[in-house]
Amino acid sequence: MNNTxxxxxxxxxxxxxxxAGESIExxxxxxxxxxxxxxxLLQTSASLxxxxxxxxxxxxKASAKREFVTALRQ
Length: 74
Hints:
single chain, 74 residues, 4 helices
């Protein structure tokens, strides 16, 4: 297995672990030789997971719907 494939496998494993709730630090500890390359990728994925979990408040959704319907009627 070449180094690129090995790194891809390690990254996939760590991504699965982080998305399942395990800490980034735990993954980095298991792969100290790849930690410098893994950390920014795992941090980015964790940030994206958090951003995707943000949902608008029900009040905002209702207000936006009213504004949209009003704009359609005009």
